[in-house]
Amino acid sequence: MSIKLRRILFYIFLAVFLITSPLIIAYAEGWRINYTTWNLEKTGGIFLEGYPSRAIIFINSEPIQHETGLFKKGLLIDDLAPGTYTIHIENAHGLAWKKVLDVYSSHVSRATKIVIPQKNAVSLTLKESIKDFIVKGDTIIGILNKNEIRAYNIQDLGKTSYIKIIGEKIIAVSPNGKNIVTQTKNGSYFLTNLLNSKSVLNITTLTETLKPQEKIKAINSHPYHNQEWILTFESGAYILQIKNSILVPVIKTPHSLLVNTTKNEAFFITPASTSPKNYNLISYNFLTNDLTLITSSTTSTPEKVIVAQNTLYILNSQNEFMAIELNNRKRIVIKERDVKDIILGREERKIALIKQKEIVIYYIEKEDQDYIVNEDESIHIPLTKTQENPTKVIWYNDDAHLVLQSHSGLFLLEIDPRPPRNIWTINENTEPIDYDPEKNKVYFIDNKNLYELDMGYESYRILLNS
Q: What Gene3D superfamilies does the annotation carry (predicted)?
C-alpha cells in the first residue's frame, strides 16, 4: 500500500472518528432524536418498587425482563424517550396494577409503593359464630354471637386454645394487648390480664371504694402505660393506677368528655364557666401533668382531635374540619365540610377525611417522592356505589393505600392520583374487619369464619374454625 493511499485512509478514518465520536458519546449519555419533532432530546426512565417478586411486568404491552431478590427490590427501566407509558404488573394470581406514567427528558418517574393484593378467600362454616373482634399483636379478642368474649393466640389457634373473658362488650385494650377492660350486661367493668387469666379485677367495685356515690361514665386506655386507665366520672377525669389502687386527678371539671389521646396528651371537652352552651377544649400532658386551654367556642363542639406537626386538627359536631396551630393558637381555614371522620396517617404526614361519597387526603407535609402534592393541599378519591358510606377506614402500613369497609365489601384503595387509580375488592363481605400494620395482615369475618390475609406474602389461612 502506497504512502498516499495510507494517508487518504488515515484522514478518512479520522474524519469518521471525529464525526461519530460525539454521536456515540451523546447516545451513551441518553440523547436521542425525537422523530415527531426532530429535536434532540435526552431520555428518561421509570423506577418501580414494591411489586411482588413473581410479578409479570409490561410497558406499553411489551413484557420486561426483571430480577428480584434479597438485594434487588426495584426495577429501573431506562433509556426511554420522553412520552407517556402504560405500566401493567400482574401477580401470580392474575390480579393487576396499572399506571400511566409520563417520562420527561433527564428525569426518572417513580412508582415505589406498588401493592397487588391476594384474591378473595374461600369461606368455611364455623360451629361458633363470631360477630366482632379486634387484633392486638398476637392476640385476637372475639365476641361470639352468644355475647361471650374469648381471647385467641394467633400462633396457637384451636378448639381449646382460648381464654374466656368476663363481660359482653370490649371497652378498652392496653397498648401491649395483654390487658382488657370489658363490661357486663349489668354495667360492671372488669379488667382481665391475658398473661394470667385468673387475674380478674372488678374495676366497678374498686372505684366504689375509691370514689363512693359516683358511677363510671367511660374508660379509656392509657397511651403508653399497660396498667393505667383513664376513667371519666360525672365530676371529672382520673387515671386509675392498678398497681397502687389509686385514682390520680386529671381534670376536676364536671361533665368533662375525653375526645382523644395522643402519645403524651389527652384532650377533653369541658363546659365553659361563662355559659353552659359554650365549651373549652383542654389538653392534659401525661409527662408534666399540666392542663392547657386550647380553644373555646359557642357554635360546635369537637368530636375528634388529632395532633400532628405541632398543629391540632379538629372534626367538630357540624362535620367541619378545622385546624389550630398550637404555638400561636392561630386557626387555619380548611374548606372541608360534611366530614364523618378524620384518620391520621401512620407517618403523621397526611390525614384521611372520610365523607359519604369520597375520601379527601389532606397533606400536612409536601409529598414529592412519586408525585407532587404541596403542604395544606388535598386530593380527592371518589367512591363508587359499593364503597359509599364506609363503615371503617384504616391506613395501610405504607401510608399510600387505605383499607376500606362498606356495606358491600372490603376494599384496598390506592391514593396515588396518577391515572388510573388502582382499587381492589379484597372480600365481598360486610362483617367486621381489622388490620395489623406491623405484620401487614388484614383480618376479616366471612360467613362465620375468621380469616387472615397476608398482604406481604400473597397468602391467606383460615384462622378460626371452632
A: 2.80.10.50
SS3 of 364-407? CCCECCCCCECCCCEEEEECCCCCCCCCEEEECCCCCEEEEEEC
HSE, side-chain direction, 13 A CA sphere, residue 392: 17
Question: What CATH number has the domain spanning 43-111?
Answer: 2.60.40
**Tens digits of per-residue pLDDT, 147-186?**
889 888 777 665 556 788 999 999 999 999 999 999 999 9
Which pTM value belongs to this model?
0.84
The second-level CATH assignment, the architecture, of 166-252 is: Beta Barrel (2.40)
CA end-to-end distance (rounded Å), the chain = 95
C-beta separation of 442 from 435 below 8 A: yes
3-state secondary structure of 419: coil
Q: Is 274 exposed, middle or buried (0-12, 13-18, 19+ CB in 10 A)?
A: exposed
Q: Where are the alpha helices (DSSP H) in 58-171?
A: none
Residue 360 CB neighbour total at 10 angstroms: 18
